[in-house]
Specification:
Layout: H1 5-19, H2 29-36, H3 49-52, H4 55-66, E1 71-72, H5 80-91, E2 95-99, E3 106-110
Antiparallel strand pairs: 1-3, 2-3
C-alpha cells in the first residue's frame, strides 16, 4: 500500500508553501527531512550529557526503555536526550531505520 496521488500532491504543495519556491526547484529529500524529521545536531548539543556518554551506555538505555521494539520518530521530537541518543546510535550503525512510504516519518530499532 503506497501513498495516494492526492496525498502526495498535498504534501508537495505543503513543502512548496513552506519554502515559498516553485515546485520544480524544491529538492524533495531535504525539505521533508527538515520539516518532518528530527531536529539536526547543533554545536551546543555537543555539551549535552547524551553526547558525552559512552555509546554502550546509550545502547543499554535504549534497550531498557524500548527493548527491541520499533520506535517512531515522534518519540524524539521534544526530548533532547533521546534525540541526541538517536543521532549518535544511528551514526554508529547501532540502529536499524525504515521510512514508511505512506507516511513521512521513520521508525528505529536497536541492532542486537
Amino acid at each position: 500500500m503506497g501513498i495516494s496521488d492526492d496525498d502526495y500532491a498535498k504534501a508537495l504543495e505543503r513543502i512548496r508553501q513552506v519554502y515559498n519556491t516553485p515546485l520544480a526547484s524544491v529538492e524533495m529529500t531535504e525539505p521533508i527531512q527538515q520539516t518532518i524529521g528530527i531536529k539536526r545536531l547543533r554545536e551546543e548539543d555537543l555539551k549535552h550529557e547524551a553526547m558525552q556518554a559512552p555509546l554502550s551506555s546509550l545502547a543499554d538505555m535504549w534497550l531498557a526503555r524500548w527493548g527491541t521494539q520499533w520506535v517512531g520518530e515522534q518519540e524524539f521530537m521534544d526530548d533532547d536526550f533521546w534525540r541526541l541518543t538517536l543521532i549518535r546510535l544511528v551514526g554508529a550503525n547501532k540502529l536499524e531505520k525504515h521510512t514508511f512510504v505512506n507516511q513521512y516519518h521513520c521508525v528505529y530499532r536497536i541492532i542486537e
